[in-house]
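>> received
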Amino acid sequence: MTLFFLTTKLTETFNAQRQILQTSSTVNTAETNTTKATNSKNIKETLKKNPAAQANDPLADIKSRLRTDDTEGIKVIFLTFDDGPTERTGEVLDLLNTYNVKGTFFTTLHDGESAKAMYNRIVDEGHTLANHTSSHDYSLYNNPDDFYADVDKLDQYQMKITGLEQTSHVFRFPGGSLNANETCALGIVDQGWNYSDWNVSSGDGCADPPPSEVIAQNVINGCHDHDVSVVLCHAELKEQTRAALPTVIETLQDEGYTFLPMENDYTYPRQLQI
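>> returned
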């Protein structure tokens, strides 16, 4: 079971719906009220019969504060990994498991048995499987209908490969939302997606990324500037980033930061506000 599916039910225990997306609360309220059948059905039924189970989650207060955007001094980090899965995704997952850290994987559509195994590992090991479009084609922004179809194609593929009946509905625009447009941003929200950009960059997005120690300091210093940090990196593609992750995680855990996977009903930084 993924942490996403476990905490989906916890969201339903709150007494009122929260405004979780800027200028789009009506859409998200409808989404929250919709009953979702997922692979976590048994866990959800248990929680329904025993609401006190929330008290057994040591992170329940942090998650509640994320849902209400009460984040001053919260020290939360979302590690996000773009453009996978690749032949190195297993190494990233192994490393995260070593530190008991959950991340968010903004994948594109990759076929083949190795890629399919990685989609399943992401889900089975409690990480958030998120959507980064099927093709990562910037030109789709010029035709919103084609863009939405490309997003849905990956959504359907992820469900087919993993057996999920509902994906996370966490989304990232290729290149970030500033490379998209207001029409695409409004449309993706109208379809029930929560999109996130980032406020901390590892600096590994270039063809020749910096050394691992520079990447590590980019992330650590960036996280020091925010109560809630969304870290952009490409560790599935960049060896230097994979090498930097142990320093990043160990340093920030020692400083009291909590690493969480993304969920649909948290508020995230956006370059393009709608």
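>> Confidence is low (pLDDT under 50) at residues 1-53.
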